[in-house]
Amino acid sequence: MANFDKPITIRYKLENCSVDQQSALEEIENLFQVSQDRLDILMRGVSQEMRDGLHFPETRDTQNDLKMIPSFVTGYPTGNEKGTYLALEISGIDIYVCQVQLKGEGGKLAINQYQYKIPDYLTVGDNMSTLVSYVADCVADFQQRVGFTTEIVYAMGISLGFAVRQTCLNKGLIVALEHGFEYTDAIGSDIVELFQKGFQKRRLSIKVVAMANDSVCTLLAHAYQHPSTRIGIVHSAGTNCAYYDKVSNMETFLSQHQDWISDHTHMIVNTEWCDISSKYMPSNKFDEMVDLGSNNKGVHAFEKMTTGMYLGELARLILVYYAGLGVLSFGMDDEECLLRFPYRFDTSYMYVCEADEDSLEGTRFVLEEMCRTGETTLADREIVKKICDLVGQRAALFLGASIAGVVRYMVSDGIGLDLEGDGFAISISGDLYKDFSSFHPRVCETLKTLIPDEVAAKLSVGIVKHSRIVGAAIVAMMAEKRNINNDMF
Questions:
Q1: Which residues contact 205 (CB under 8 A, 6 or more apart)?
Q2: Pairing of strands 108-117, 94-104
Q3: In the 8-state DSSP scheme, what is residue 298?
Q4: Residues ≥6 apart with Cβ < 8 Å to 402
Q5: How many percent of the chain have pLDDT more than 90?
Q6: pLDDT at 12 over 90
Q7: Mean pLDDT for the chain?
């Protein structure tokens, strides 16, 4: 590929900034530029990490970045399946309970969903069943609202924000609780068994037939309406990617499940790519500051450089730096200024600033009203907009290169792409990806730049709504349809 030493970046006009201000900002522009050869290193690194994760056991001395976790989901939705299924999603302190009616006819469906909040006092405790009982109460409330009959046992799929090591489609052991949850007896518990017991205690006519990671659910939610979908990506506060692979490629998995190769040809694999390390991506002093201030130092570099959990903090640290140099007219000495405090420049503010035009009134509101900086100048607002642009642009480039790495691996192994016929679809969900207006075009352009034209012509990228909750229902449908919910798996 030509011009690999040329940085992929956009030069922004700072029409109201002084020469000194423009000169000072060149430092940040240089720090956040990414050349095509560095993106190629990331792309190739992701491909190699995928292979290593499939072929080397986790017990080896050197851990690879991608965990490559089997999902136990096999087969493909066609869009013609019919039935009513339940789905449960726990994402942070949010609980979503959903009824999905699959109507077939090429992917038609109807959704009935309610959202509940987990109270703060239920985020910690000694007995995980306390939280499960509350979730069961929410599900019971949902069923009453919707008017479910107790004469039918409904199949349910669940999608959780907890780290779970699946041992089969309907069994998974909790590895870690995240998002502020702490239950002393949680680690090592079978999460499906916990929920099933909780529902039985509440006398709910529900059978949990499957669980799936959020990226697996994103893939399947899109695949029901677009059966050619082979990759699912979540990119929001965190990030992850799942894709279809040949079971014959999964050497580590087959060493423990030798019977699968004769019964199943393809399975969805959860890459857990949030932990792609900085050895594949150029980092700078602001990335190091974010890492040092995090509660998981030294890991999840890809997540810290690209996701909604951290991008706003990256931008804030740069603003603090330039305020200290006097490049910005407002300072951080005023006790009212919220920019003095970590994570008080929310990533959603970047969406507003990046899309702002003309007088940059939206940026002014973010700074003066939301961050309480005091009065700002138009030059200040131009600087803030540029910083948001650069931080967001780099994140999109890294995401695009990582997707290219997955595509490169799949194409090299003949997975999901027949160059003589049809290609496949890539599904992406997440507030950051959907709401950061420049993200999607930048990701697509990066992907197109890094892969051969004949491959790019065979790909499509779709943004998914209701991804995880609908995908969980699709997993339940697939489990029921194929009658694979038994002790074998």
A1: 148, 149, 150, 151, 152, 153, 154
A2: antiparallel
A3: T
A4: 42, 43, 46, 241, 273, 276, 302
A5: 65
A6: no
A7: 88
DSSP state of 465: S
Specify whether the CB–CB gap between 250 and 268 falls below 8 A.
Answer: no
> SS3 of 157, please?
strand
Q: What's the pTM?
A: 0.90
- Residue 364, C-beta contacts closer than 8 angstroms, at least 6 positions apart: 376, 381
**Tokens 């017990």 -> residue:** 59
Token pair 């109460």 is found at 137
Give the pairing of strands 34-35 and 7-8: antiparallel
> Among 380, 399, 184, which residue's Cα sits nearest to residue 280?
399
350 beta partners: none
The kind and range of the H/E element at 223 are helix 214-225
DSSP 365: I
291-339 pLDDT per residue, tens: 999 888 888 999 999 999 999 999 999 999 999 999 999 888 888 899 9
DSSP label at residue 237: S
C-alpha 103/C-alpha 122 separation (Å) is 37
What are the φ and ψ backbone dihedral angles of 395, each rounded to 5 degrees? -60, -45
pLDDT at residue 484, as a whole number? 44
Rounded Cα–Cα distance for residues 343 and 331 (Å)? 17
The owner of tokens 């040092």 is 292
Copy the structure tokens of residue 63.
Answer: 């851990």
Q: Are 236 and 184 in contact (CB under 8 A)?
A: no
